[in-house]
Amino acid sequence: MHQIILFYKYIYLDNPEEIKNKQKKICSQLNLVGRCIIAHEGINATFEGTQENIKKYILELEKDNRFLNIHFKISSSSGNSFPKLSIKTRKEIVSLDLTCDIDPNQITGLRLSPEELYEWIQGPNETKKEFYIVDMRNIYEQKVGNFKNSILMPLTNFRDLPKFIKNIEHLKNKTIVTVCTGGVRCEKASGFLLSQNFKDVYQLDGGIVSYMEKYPNEDFQGKLYVFDQRIAMGFYTDDPKRNTSQLSATVIGECEACKKPSENYINCLNLFCHRHFIICEECLVENKNQLCPKSCILTRYGKKVIILKIKNIFKNIFKKSFIKLKKLFFNLAKNSIFKILKIIFYIKKNYETIFR
Length: 356
Known about the structure:
By secondary structure, this protein is an alpha/beta fold. It has helices at 16-29, 51-61, 114-122, 139-142, 161-164, 184-195, 207-214, 281-286, 305-349, 351-355, and strands at 2-10, 33-39, 42-50, 73-77, 85-89, 110-112, 132-135, 145-147, 151-152, 175-179, 200-204, 220-222, 224-225, 232-233, 265-267, 276-278.
């Protein structure tokens, strides 16, 4: 039986390269595959392996006291969710690229457990707390599943958060609960909101995946987008609830071509586009080229394709021109130096003749 383990921890690490090499060794010995990012600010990883080897990995990881008290999210898998092992060092474990540094160990939202959020959502109307769930995931993740009545931030990339903070400025004095897949983005997102003078900010502890595990097919509608070959995952998807008229149990993903319910993602095969979108099986048969149904307009990350094309063309022209100019200046400099040296040697040799 195979499992996927998802975890992160924000903690200062003075030796990311050393940890990277050690993680590579441990994962290779245990035949784990997946992705891991290590930075001075901590670790963020998703690995897949057999149930036995996942347990061994946790024991090995916790031998380092810095990695104790981690909330591990574990789910069953097919054993084919990742093609290889990738462990890298980066500047951040999730890239927000803020002008001001957000350290979750110094500033972050209050943690709200799945059980507490469930009570907030399901509580009696007369005593129900006023709060707003703000989804901090990317647009393409939200399309296949989200919390009912949540505010979906229009992010094409997590780095867009500062640009769209104006969308929720009217909630600065309200209670906000930030949500994301496993919790790692909300650590920084909630901290960023606090730095922008939002007064009452929470984060869903353990992320959406922890909530779905405890309360499948209820308040979170659709499936959860994940960054491996499963693409979208659910818990107990054979539950009869999922096929009823309940909003929290229906397929909310929509085929871009025919608008029918679908959870089937593909990437556009136009190399300039490569956008990630939902298309049902029937339309995919008709769309043999696997291109965007209504022509390629935006890339996966929201950039206009035509602008990207022009940018790449100029980039290639500049690159070729720079190489030619570099060679030209090198040759000119080389010839100039030889000429100057010739003149110096000539003057030295004929000094008395020239200056007598």
